[in-house]
Design a protein that fits this description.
mainly alpha, Arc Repressor Mutant, subunit A, Four Helix Bundle (Hemerythrin (Met), subunit A), 2 domains, three-stranded antiparallel β-sheet, 68% helix, disordered N terminus
Length: 223
């Protein structure tokens, strides 16, 4: 069976002071979302038009992703997307559950209401991105939301550990959820999570986070 054609990556919309980092972020999100397929080799000149940039920043970004273990260099051809096994993904999800669930539950008692409300625009962006089927924007907003939430616990090392685990993960089923019109349900959980946190409902937070991370497991099983 021929591989499913993936939607093109969104244009970056022009240079900004952190232009190189922006290219890295977009390519990383495309890898996590499964828009760049495991085992496939991609060249910088071929990817550049899909991002609306030249080949040089794409090549530099891919070299940065080599350091993160997301792609490997294929001499004279480009970069091969590294495969991640189901066992590895399950291990990442297990560690995330051990960290994210109790930490987020603890925020029901400690987080400032104003700090929680400050995350609502990101939650809304996640919902909007899901409705539009914009997987890159969805991945980026989701990452920013969860890391911003965990940062309220005041442990920078914990945030970096979760950032690394999320970068290593793959959500192969996102495209299928978009096509089935089901991504919105997972997206809405971010707003639900904020509401139970603001209600100081620790049990509710535990239930939402457990359900939410369970959806993540289904997303990478869908490939």
């Amino acid at each position: 069976m021929a591989p499913q054609k993936r939607p093109a990556l969104p244009p970056l919309g022009g240079r900004t002071p952190n232009f190189r980092e922006r290219v890295v972020d977009v390519l990383r999100a495309a890898l996590i979302a499964g828009e760049l397929l495991p085992g496939e080799v991609y060249s910088a000149p071929a990817l550049a038009p899909r991002l609306g940039v030249s080949a040089t920043p794409v090549r530099e970004a891919m070299l940065e992703l080599v350091k993160e273990g997301m792609v490997d260099i294929v001499p004279n051809k480009g970069f091969r997307v590294t495969a991640v096994s189901d066992r590895q993904l399950d291990e990442y999800k297990h560690v995330r559950s051990l960290i994210e669930i109790p930490t987020t539950v603890g925020l029901a008692a400690t987080a400032d209401a104003g700090d929680l409300e400050a995350l609502r625009p990101l939650a809304v962006e996640i919902v909007d991105s899901a409705a539009k089927g914009d997987l890159i924007a969805y991945i980026e907003a989701d990452l920013a939301f969860h890391l911003g939430l965990l940062a309220l616990a005041g442990n920078d090392h914990l945030v970096e550990v979760v950032r690394d685990l999320r970068r290593r993960s793959r959500l192969y089923g996102l495209t299928a959820l978009v096509e089935a019109g089901r991504l919105g349900a997972s997206a809405e959980e971010h707003l639900e999570l904020l509401d139970v946190l603001l209600a100081r409902d620790a049990q509710g937070v535990h239930e939402v986070m457990t359900r939410h991370l369970g959806h993540v497991r289904g997303l990478w099983a869908a490939h």
